[in-house]
């Protein structure tokens, strides 16, 4: 009988304490910190923010195969929460690259920049339109950087 009573008491204690262990839920506007597998801590926001690209469309004009062009896109967080990158910016083509690796959230009201490099390839002649996606805590989740060029031999 003592074993049964002890077992029931342990189950009751576990049932009361386990639901309170879920620290990942936050109330609206509250920030939570989590630790990544590498031991780095990252800040998650409790809300959606607004990321604006001040120059979201760039045309390199007429360029030749083999030309390498760069352009700096300016990002501004116009929301009230920090903008948190889900990952590094993602180009839609292997002829486009970025050297940008998020250093951390962009605070509300602050700006940052992303440098994009376009390499004109011989397999992609004529009008080229490319996109780099920035994923984070915005609605919609993707912010797009557009670039174009007229590539000739």
pLDDT < 50 stretches: 9-45
The CATH topology assignment of one domain is Immunoglobulin-like
Measured distance between first and last alpha carbons:
89 Å
Rounded Rg: 24 Å
Mean pLDDT: 78
| Oligomeric grouping of the chains | single chain
Mind telling me the CATH class of one domain?
Answer: Mainly Beta
Number of E strands: 10
Helical content band: 10-25%
- One letter per element, helices H and strands E, the order comes to HEEEEEEEEEE
The biggest beta sheet is recorded as: 4 strands, antiparallel
Biggest sheet: strands side by side, in what order? 3-5-8-7
The CATH superfamily label of one domain reads Immunoglobulins
Query: What overall form do the CA principal axes indicate?
Result: elongated
Q: Proportion of β residues?
A: 35-45%
Number of distinct helices: 1
């Amino acid at each position: 009988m003592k074993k049964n009573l002890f077992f029931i008491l342990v189950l009751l204690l576990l049932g009361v304490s386990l639901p309170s262990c879920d620290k990942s839920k936050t109330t609206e506007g509250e920030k939570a910190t989590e630790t990544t597998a590498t031991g780095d801590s990252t800040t998650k926001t409790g809300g959606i923010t607004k990321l604006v690209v001040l120059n979201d469309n760039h045309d390199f004009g007429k360029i030749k195969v083999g030309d390498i062009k760069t352009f700096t896109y300016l990002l501004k967080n116009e929301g009230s929460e920090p903008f948190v990158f889900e990952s590094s910016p993602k180009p839609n083509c292997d002829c486009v690259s970025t050297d940008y690796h998020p250093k951390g959230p962009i605070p509300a009201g602050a700006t940052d920049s992303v440098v994009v490099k376009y390499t004109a390839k011989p397999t992609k002649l004529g009008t080229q339109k490319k996109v780099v996606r920035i994923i984070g805590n915005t609605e919609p989740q993707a912010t797009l950087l557009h670039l174009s060029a007229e590539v000739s031999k």
